[in-house]
Amino acid sequence: CIGRYECPVDGCDFAANSAQPKQVTGRPLCKGMCPDKALSQSTCIHHKVPLVHTGPCPAYWTREIHQPTEDNEHGMTTITHHKTHNHREPPNEHISKRAAEKLEDIVRSNKRATPSVLKQGVEGEEPVQSLHPALINTDRVSYHRRKALKGRRKRSKSRDTLRLSELPTIEEDLGYDIFPEPPTLGRGDANITIQFPHMKSVAKEESRYAHQTDSIEKWFKDDGTGNTYTQTITSRHSEVLGRHVATVMSISFGRTAAHYKRHFKAFILSLGYDTFEEFENGFDGNISDFSDAEFLGFRQAVMSVYGITDAESVDWERLYKFCLVHFQRSVERVKTNYSVVPHGRQDEFQEMVDVLLSEETTEEQFLDTVDKILQEFPLTTNWIEWYLEHFRGALVFPAMRNGTIKGHGRDTNAGEVTGRWFKTRAYTRSEIRRPTLEEGLGIMVREGQTVQDDYSAELNGVRTGYGTRSSPRDRVAKKTKRSATSVVRNIKSLLEKSFARLRDKEETGKRKRCRDPYVNDGRSPDKGSQLVPKHKRRKLSNSQSQRAKTTNVRGA
Fold it and tell me: Whose CB among 59, 296, 386, 432 lies 3.0–4.6 Å from 257's, allowing a Cys bridge?
């Protein structure tokens, strides 16, 4: 036995496995030798101190090989354990044969289930980590899944369902609280918010990563009640898990500011700040798209929690930020509309926009640039005024704000990917493209339980993935700066592909008209119909129309 690494702080149970010592010249492998380092994690997650090895362990095992005999033609191997370990059991790294066989059966019956879906459980089966603790590691599950996908069996479907009647007892069944605020049903701001204990731990991590909030709209199946069910997810990067995960999930029965207020109120209360001063100094900030209802819901939640009566007394740009990528997409739509920005002047328009977004731009330079844009490109008036009016300007342009959020981040890309995987896993696991309300509740519980299990495993020293961890800051540091031109080129390419797909659908007649038109309250007036004046065709009188017809006949 090569022992294990433990946290030197009294009362801390965090531990890590030892790396297998390597044989080097002058140092052969022998019984009782100490390893050189821990297998993966070398510092305690809780106390940030180096782990210490427990020292030489007296326990060892021997193997005795018996040659084939008349009674046993294949021979036999006997393994014997000697002495007692001087340390507690290290984290599990290898799964048992029985667990591997059971996992193989589950994978072959559900060959489309990804490792993250297997960890949430498929129909009739518990999450795979219940088979063996080592299967909490997503990469290990992926490895065994690839090995198992050699045969084919009939695939069964899993149903994600949590009935509304089960809400009062779900916390007792799980063994911990998951509702930061009681569900509000039968009200104008009806909302069901779920936050598992370790989702709350991720939200409270002092990592200086901004939170990201995104909504999945028009995903739920219409049940005829008139409710506009919307899935809202607040997420952030976790240093413990090494990935971006959800911290609060809500299903609201509408998309008004009152519904978003319920979501953000539960989120703010979970952070544990007693006063607004503590909240303002400690909160890493939230990044969202340009939805008016979403921002107003956040503002109302903050004012409600901390008893603020005057909204103008708060510098909201220190707490909230709009996604820069959403703004750049809008810029690209306006710039490529030649009725608004004449052909050949796209670079000139982009340079002016870059001045508006620059951290170095002064207030005077900002105002001069806005005037220049309106003079050179007068049809952009509606568009630029939409971003400057009300509260948006301070949350977009550095020259208009008094400070900014403390956390790292400038877009909602990671949050949108979290929502995309949210939908993908639901379909892969249960073939649900548009869930009902009860199916949506079940999906939220499975997602929350996965974060809960993974976080608990990491706190106990059990890795949930292989390799070294990377953070958004590390990726930004290693990534070379791309010029504004390359960013625009990439966005333009994506937009052209999207427009091409729409044209193909229109030509083939496959495009379906929406029964109820979708209104995006977070999009600026950047379409040609909103920017270019409409010239009405003059209607001819009966006498003029008759003369025109007569002229055409003579001409013929």
Answer: 296
